[in-house]
Every structure is written in C-alpha cells, then in structure tokens.
Design brief:
This protein has 8 helices and 11 strands. By secondary structure, the chain is of the alpha/beta class.
C-alpha cells in the first residue's frame, strides 16, 4: 500500500531527538521487486530494499567517483567536441545524477530506475532536495524500468554506463540482477556502449573475480579505483573500456 506523504515528514524539524537514536520510517512501499523503505536516521535519509540497506545521504564520494572516473576514462574522445552521453543505472539517493548534471561536459543523462517509489521520492518527496535541479536539467531523462531488461532490449547507445544497482557484482539486491555481471550481461553492456565507451560498476568491496570476467568478456583497460572508508574494506569502482 502507498502511504500518503505528510508535510511534517518533509520538515527536518518535524521530529524529536529520538530520531537521532533510531531510524524513522518515512514511507514503505510494496514495489514490483519487493518492499522498499525510505527512512530518516538523524539528518540522514536511507533507502532499504527487501530488508537490505542500499544507501544513505551520508557521503556520496563513491557515487561521484563513479561518474567522474567514467568521464575521465573516455579521454581522448573518439569524437572531439561532442559531449558524451551517460547512462546511470539506479537513481538511489541521487548523488550520481546530481553530480553528472552539475558537469557541463556530459551530454544526455539517462537514469534507469525500476522502483516507482524511489522516483516519486525524488520528484515530490524528501529526496527532492538533492535532485530537483538535476531532474529539471533538460539533459536528464528518467526511464522507469529494470536495468537488466533495459540493457538487453534497448536500441540506444551511450558513451558511458555507470551502474550502481547492487552492493556489488557478488552481493546483489535481487537474484535476477546476477545476470548483469555474467558474460551474457556484460555482452549486453558492451552492445549498449559505443566504441571506446566506458563501463563503470560500483561495489562495496573489491572483486578480482569480476575483473577477470570483464577481461574475458572482451573489455580492455580493466582496473579498479578504491574509495577509502573509515572502517573495513574500501568501496570501489570497477572500470572497463569497450574496444574501439
């Protein structure tokens, strides 16, 4: 069931100090792929899918690196003077979209998001503060569909694919996402990329096995960029280039 938003929910001052001790559920939806929840924990907004923590608004460094690393790996451009088009897989809390839209060097920005609730939280809910300007950018297009189906079926092509729909190739949110990181799924990603295009995949931990899969799938210049965290293993961005 869809829970109507209350204006008090949007107001950061409309909750007492107990919100800093435990998360407060702002909205809970049963979506096409299970339950999605938006919570506030102190000043942070959090997205939970089927009981699995996805992301929050605490930092955003790794989401911004995902976009920047893909852009930098495109240089030199095969078509000088033509801004590259980017596909962002997963809207999340909006860090990647907002960062791409703030960069005039990107051309068209397509975001694929399968959860209608997340799109609504950005368009008219608590996450709009992060993404309103990016959503209003004429370069931005939101596609409400499953990313795996999109890369398998679309006729569109892009210069960069920035994928952040799971906690990593070996730690997916739903079972069906596994296929995206398989040889067949990576072949679909390569098909959607233009020659010399870059695939960038966010992960909560390094994966040498995924690097090998990228090489075996025919990608070149495979490498991993790490984002240090306060504790534990670093977040990473896996990068690979489709041959020209």
């Amino acid at each position: 069931m869809t829970t109507p938003y209350d204006t008090a929910v949007y107001d950061n001052s409309a909750h007492d100090n107990s919100a800093y001790d435990s998360p407060v559920v702002l909205d809970r939806r049963e979506g096409p792929y299970g339950e999605v929840v938006l919570r506030r924990h102190g000043e942070l907004l959090q997205i939970i899918a089927n009981g699995c923590f996805l992301m929050d608004t605490s930092d955003g460094r790794s989401e911004r690196l995902l976009v920047d690393a893909a852009r930098d790996a495109l240089d030199p451009r095969p078509e000088p003077g033509v801004p590259p088009d980017v596909l962002i897989g997963g809207l999340g809390v909006g860090f990647s979209l907002a960062h791409a839209a703030a960069d005039s060097r990107w051309g068209h920005i397509t975001v694929v998001e399968r959860e209608p609730a997340i799109v609504e939280w950005h368009r008219s809910g608590p996450l709009s503060a992060l993404s309103a300007a990016a959503l209003a950018d004429p370069r931005t297009d939101i596609v409400k569909t499953d990313l795996v189906a999109f890369v398998n079926e679309t006729c569109a092509t892009f210069d960069a694919l920035c994928l952040d729909i799971d906690n990593g190739p070996g730690w997916t949110v739903t079972e069906g996402n596994d296929s995206l990181y398989s040889p067949a799924g990576l072949a679909s990603c390569a098909r959607v990329l233009r020659p010399g295009g870059v695939l960038a995949v966010w992960s909560a931990r390094p994966s040498p096995e995924f690097e090998r899969t990228l090489w075996n799938a025919g990608f070149q210049q495979v490498r991993t960029e790490e984002i240090p965290v306060a504790r534990g293993v670093p977040d990473v961005v896996h990068l690979a280039v489709r041959p020209g």
